[in-house]
């Protein structure tokens, strides 16, 4: 069981319709990569079409990466380490924490049992918000 629901091959309009009718959904993201480990996530992201990434990573643009975890709280330092480990992505813009043009999210799912939280996430997603 996961708190994340992946919808495939829907238009942005379709996603907006689903979100408008949903009571429990918090956010919708454009999924760029995923995996059970950070290594699998990296492979998935490097296989994502560059032409879809480039418009959001150009020089002159600004961005921010948020790290969200389900069923585990990470320290600020751990969040920064996870963001820094994604240096393989071709970001050419500048980081803007207050007013970015583009927001990206690293989502980590640590399962649903608060009494048995694993050290590593069960699944990881990288998305554009």
From TrEMBL:
Give start and end of each tRNA (guanine(10)-N(2))-methyltransferase TRMT11 N-terminal domain: 2-129
What PANTHER family does the record point to?
A: RNA METHYLASE-RELATED (PTHR13370), TRNA (GUANINE(10)-N2)-METHYLTRANSFERASE HOMOLOG (PTHR13370:SF3)
In Swiss-Prot or TrEMBL terms, this protein is called tRNA methyltransferase 11
Q: Which InterPro entries match?
A: TRMT11_N (IPR059073)
One biological process GO term for this chain?
methylation
Q: Which GO terms describe its molecular function?
A: methyltransferase activity
**Keyword annotations from UniProtKB, A to Z:** Methyltransferase, Transferase
